[in-house]
Amino acid sequence: MSSEASTAETKYKSPLVSSVSLGPADGVLGTGGGESIVISGNYFGTSGAAAAPVLLEYGPYNATSCSVSSQTVMECVSAVGVGNRHAARVYVDGQWSTYSGPVVEVWYRRPSVSTAEAVSGSDDIESMPTTGGTLVRLTGSDFGPVDASALP
């Protein structure tokens, strides 16, 4: 009989991302963050207290409060951000994900202007000179974070 110890290593499959569902009905995230992101795929590990550390990264952003709901579903909260076509990938217990098809992307909503008004000079917005010099206030939504330092 040999007195040598035997060691075995267990290797798990890398997480696999197949789709991302964004909380809002229009399928894009508001720039203020805090919205639900549900990631579907496989090999996300177990849920509960014994769950491995998980992360969702998309472009330069990291989602927050990520948790595994099941082996195939992971949920996170969106970060403050801007832009589109951010490739999404997940990190589960030391391994980065692969894709089960095309790259899965996360998009932020485009800015929307509801009003524009001249705030300097006496120019009306419709009759402003084309030479410039008039300060204009735009009102709307999804212009991005108020504090630019919130962006990576």
In short:
Helix content is 0%, strand content 39%. It has no helices and 12 strands.
Task: Note down, in words, how this protein is organized.
This protein has 152 residues and is an all-beta fold. The strands form three sheets. Strands 5-6-2-1-9 form a five-stranded mixed β-sheet, with no helix packed on it. Strands 3, 4, 7, 8 and 10 form a five-stranded antiparallel β-sheet that branches. Strands 11-12 form a two-stranded antiparallel sheet. The N and C termini lie far apart (60 Å). The protein contains no helices and twelve strands. It is 0% helix and 39% strand.
Task: Jot down its keywords.
5-stranded antiparallel β-sheet; 152 residues; mainly beta; 5-stranded mixed β-sheet
Elements, N to C (H/E):
EEEEEEEEEEEE
Amino- and carboxy-terminal Cα gap: 60 Å
Low-confidence stretches: none
Q: What's the story with the biggest beta sheet?
A: 5 strands, mixed
What is the spatial order of strands in the main beta sheet? Answer: 5-6-2-1-9
Structural class: mainly beta
The best one-word shape is elongated
Distinct helical segment count: 0
**C-alpha-based Rg, rounded:** 23 Å
Count of individual beta strands: 12
Q: In which range does the helix fraction lie?
A: under 10%
Strand content range: 35-45%
The average pLDDT score comes to 86
